[in-house]
Write a sequence for this structure.
């Protein structure tokens, strides 16, 4: 399968598209004003220790305090075992994942784990790394287990572990890599990434030496810095993508900005010299992303409803920590029988769902509501295909078997905000709810509010003026004149409607005259 990486650089943002067989597979966008924090290292100061949550809030110099769970504190997780990881993308292989920290438990001591209050004190300064960007109202998720990603390895200077990516399946190659890393006698923990398969001892040593020097620079910067703030920032998005995704399957990397092109050529020449000739400067008049209609695919991925080629469709709804996907037959009527139609729709939906999860970067809990299938063999066929498609995903995923209701529950590791939250904002009119009250509902609220004015109206008021949206006023005069007259009789004063052009449809104000 041939692949290409397209890098679109502009003064305020950088967009990177990973294209497989001319189809967008992954998309990343980073604005200069809001770069990702994942992988960056900070000097933090503990603000509050919360024994009830077994967590702490840490000031790292950002607007919101970062969240540190006990399992992410050095000494707060089991550090006496080797481990293997589902590695793929450098910063995603952070220590918080690699150590698989325990989930919150009310009885930490019974499980032999230190308590947060025994590990941290308020006012204490600690070195931390961002594991997840701030999301919604939540601050960044941080860890004290620093992990530094190189081309072939991930170096964890605070640990003493050796790991090999599970995606390297050859047992003899795993053993060779293990012996190669042990021969280097690293001071910290080392994980060989999938990109390290086939790497020579010299390549592994070069990676390790570079990351060890980087770690020592970070320690010096940390000691110099006396207040909470940045110690080391992760590299730019275009360099991260090349570090993590540039391999033999990538035929070319096209960059549409000369300065970025020079920076990328220098980076690749230093760390991945065999791919240096794959880097090309794109200078055609046609926009780079128009080569494969990537902007059209991005717009499609921002829609709630995604149509399938057969005529069926899926609906994707995102909440803060939950994504719900519904599969429907739509216009597809099939050819043989109902069960065959349902199976074909579900199988086609599986591929589109896996594709959309990658492009949208959906994370957290994901529930997929497939169309109900009567035959067990059909349900297994759908779940097996879903598991197969998810293997291509660089983000860590887990899934359950299909329930009797046709639901599949899965999780996908969330590190960065999704595509929708990156490119969109809540509707300023409906405040992100996705709906507003009907005109008839607002009219009914006006009438009830007027009736509540009855005691005051009888005392001294001669008339009442309702300030409202023009659509609501038009509705009342067209459909509710009888109700308006009844209310006027009941409260004993006249009522006038005044249109306010700047009012929200649901906004009303009542003034007495």
């Amino acid at each position: 399968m041939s692949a290409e990486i397209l890098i679109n650089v502009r003064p305020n943002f950088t967009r990177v598209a990973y294209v497989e067989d001319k189809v967008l597979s992954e998309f990343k966008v980073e604005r200069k004003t809001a770069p990702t924090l994942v992988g960056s290292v900070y000097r933090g100061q503990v603000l509050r220790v919360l024994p009830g949550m077994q967590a702490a809030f840490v000031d790292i110099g950002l607007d919101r305090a970062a969240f540190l769970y006990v399992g992410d504190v050095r000494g707060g997780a089991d550090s006496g075992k080797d481990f293997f990881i589902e590695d793929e993308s450098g910063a995603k292989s952070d220590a918080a994942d690699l150590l698989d920290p325990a989930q919150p438990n009310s009885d930490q001591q019974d499980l032999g784990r230190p308590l947060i209050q025994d590990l941290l004190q308020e006012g204490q300064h600690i070195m931390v790394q961002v594991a997840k960007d701030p999301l919604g109202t939540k601050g960044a998720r941080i860890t004290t287990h620093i992990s530094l990603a190189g081309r072939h390895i991930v170096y964890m200077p605070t640990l003493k572990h050796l790991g090999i990516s599970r995606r390297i399946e050859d047992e003899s190659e795993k053993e060779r890599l293990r012996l190669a890393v042990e021969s280097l006698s690293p001071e910290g923990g080392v994980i060989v990434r999938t990109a390290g398969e086939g790497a020579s001892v010299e390549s592994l040593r070069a990676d390790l030496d570079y990351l060890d020097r980087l770690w020592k620079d970070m320690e010096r910067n940390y000691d110099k810095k006396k207040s909470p703030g940045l110690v080391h920032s992760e590299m730019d998005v275009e360099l991260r993508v090349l570090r993590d995704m540039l391999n033999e399957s990538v035929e070319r990397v096209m960059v549409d900005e000369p300065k970025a092109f020079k920076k990328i050529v220098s980076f690749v020449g230093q760390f991945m010299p065999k791919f240096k000739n794959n880097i090309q400067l794109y200078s055609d008049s046609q926009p780079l992303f128009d080569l494969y209609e990537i902007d059209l695919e991005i717009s499609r991925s921002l829609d709630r409803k995604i149509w399938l080629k057969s005529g069926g469709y899926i609906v994707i709804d995102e909440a803060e920590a939950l994504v719900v996907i519904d599969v429907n037959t739509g216009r597809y009527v099939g050819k043989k029988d109902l069960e065959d139609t349902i199976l074909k729709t579900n199988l086609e939906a599986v591929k589109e769902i896996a594709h959309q999860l990658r492009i949208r970067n959906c994370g957290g809990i994901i529930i997929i509501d497939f169309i109900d299938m009567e035959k067990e063999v059909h349900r297994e066929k759908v779940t097996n295909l879903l598991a197969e498609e998810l293997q291509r995903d660089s983000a860590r995923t887990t899934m359950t078997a299909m329930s009797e209701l046709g639901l599949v529950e899965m999780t996908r590791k969330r590190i960065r905000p999704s595509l929708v939250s990156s490119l969109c904002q809540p509707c300023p009119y409906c405040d992100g709810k996705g709906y507003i009250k009907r005109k008839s509902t607002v009219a009914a609220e006006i009438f009830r509010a007027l009736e509540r004015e009855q005691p005051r109206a009888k005392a001294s008021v001669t008339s009442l003026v309702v300030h409202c949206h023009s659509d609501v006023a038009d509705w009342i005069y067209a459909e509710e004149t009888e109700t308006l007259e009844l209310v006027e009789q009941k409260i004993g004063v006249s009522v006038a409607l005044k249109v306010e052009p700047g009012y929200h449809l649901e906004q009303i104000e009542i003034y007495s005259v």
Observations:
- Confidence is low (pLDDT under 50) at residues 76-110.
- The chain has four domains: 3-33+239-294, 41-235, 304-423, 439-512.
